[in-house]
Amino acid sequence: ESTLGAAAAQSGRYFGTAIASGKLGDSAYTTIANREFNMVTAENEMKIDATEPNRGQFNFSAGDRVYNWAVQNGKRVRGHTLAWHNQQPGWMQQLSGSTLRQAMINHINGVMNHYKGKIYAWDVVNEAYADGNSGGRRDSNLQRTGNDWIEVAFRTARAADPAAKLCYNDYNIDNWSWAKTQGVYNMVRDFKSRGVPIDCVGLQSHFNGNSPYNSNYRTTIQSFAALGVDVQITELDIQGGSATTYANVVNDCLAVPRCTGITVWGVRDTDSWLGSGASALLFDGNGNKKAAYTAVLNAL
Ligand code: XIL
Question: What is the ipTM of this complex?
Fold first, then answer.
């Protein structure tokens, strides 16, 4: 196959990218994105601050621009993200307790209702676990509403759009030996045992010097999958752009039947949230395929 999306489809998987609405007028960008990828995540446009800038007033204009571009070009869409401590609108940052809990529920319902039946998988909860060795929850305004906030978010999401897969998404849960990974693993195991609706785990997979790719990545993917959830690689980028590491990531996903797809967090190095100097993506700033691109294509 000659594109990432078509190559991934040979094994029933997808290959996606983050899309920024502000770049949809850049034909060099859209040409590559349209040619290579068959899954789209809005890089910022479906986050809480974008979709509910004022309490109870939803705005889907930017989210819809990304959604419509994707669907008009035959791609599916991952929804990102409904409940998160980051990129909250100012009004939500001010809330606490039962008021914040209800605002979270209203937000999930408002956004999922707008996109009902249209989203392949939603990152219902993003980055709720703490870094470091605790293996516990991150302190946040949402966490302070009560430890059950994550399962409430998932139950709300299932009722709002039963057709969407519901994912828990986080970074630094790719290394099996890390406490954060084990914390999330224990939560997913608990949710499955108690019937809390969860369908997938998103491994963001932002690899860099402090959190490098580890050869136990395949064990992590296998272990989550064995709990009865899909695993998706949701925000892949590799600082330095090692072709070998990119190939390892693809090989690890392909080794696990329930690893259903891979999304890279941007198109060209110049589109990366890490800046072009990180050289973290598959195309250079001129849109040329990098060695990492060829390694990924050959591995798929
Ligand atoms: C990043 C975007 O790429 C940036 O444009 C934005 O300024 C900040 O957020 N984890 C996530 C993503 O779940 O939403 C983040 O995206 C990157 C880290």
Answer: 0.99
